[in-house]
Every structure is written in C-alpha cells, then in structure tokens.
Design brief:
This protein has three helices and no strands. With 121 residues, the protein is mainly alpha-helical. The relative contact order is 0.16.
C-alpha cells in the first residue's frame, strides 16, 4: 500500500498547487474577502494533508493496517473537507454539511497514524 499512498499524495499535492494557483490568479478578484479566506484555508489544509499522505506512504510498511487506515481517513477527509470548503467558497453546490465529516476524518487520520506508531513501539 505504500506506493498507493505516495501516488495519492502526489495527486493531492498537485491538486493543492492547482487550487492555490487558481485562488491567487484565477478567482481572487471575483471573490469576496470571506470566500477568498475560506478558499485559502482549504488550500492550506489540502497541502498539509497531501504531505501527511506522503508520510503515510513512507510509514506504511512499518505501520501496518493502522497506517493504511490513516491513509484512508486522510484521503476521504481531504475529499470531503476540502471539497466542501472549495464548493462553498466558489459558489458551487451547498455541501457544507460534509465539511465536519471530512474534518473528523482528518483528525481520525492523525490519531490512527499516532496509534500505528505507538503500537509498533
């Protein structure tokens, strides 16, 4: 699974950079300050969790199933949390109810990653 998590991290990182470029150059002049701040916050979370997925990929061979579960939580959390933030900021469908679910999954990912390290200690 390590290669899968590194591939997912690469896709997440590339899409985070694309969203950052869009936020800075494509839509910045068309959004109100609150929407732009939300978009930038989503990009920040997107980038950090792309790096977290990369870390999962490096750790997965030693971390076992808990590390893989962390990767699943991070990947789903990114889709739901960042997707909801981006959709709201850009005036898309109102799926804000998915943001707390995604955020909870991101938190769970970190806890699973910690558990995988403690279990192997």
């Amino acid at each position: 699974m390590a290669r899968v998590w590194i591939a997912v991290a690469g896709l997440a990182g590339a899409s985070a950079v694309a969203m950052a470029a869009s936020a800075s150059h494509g839509v910045a002049d068309r959004l109100d300050p609150a929407a732009l701040a939300a978009l930038r916050s989503g990009v920040q979370m997107h980038g950090w969790h792309a790096l977290a997925l990369f870390g999962v990929g490096l750790w997965a061979p030693a971390g076992g199933r808990l590390a893989d579960a962390a990767g699943v939580a991070f990947a789903l959390g990114l889709l739901l949390f960042c997707g909801a933030v981006y959709s709201r900021a850009l005036g898309g469908p109102h799926i804000a109810a998915l943001a707390p679910v995604g955020g909870t999954l991101l938190i769970l990912g970190w806890l699973l990653l910690a558990a995988s390290a403690l279990r192997r200690a």
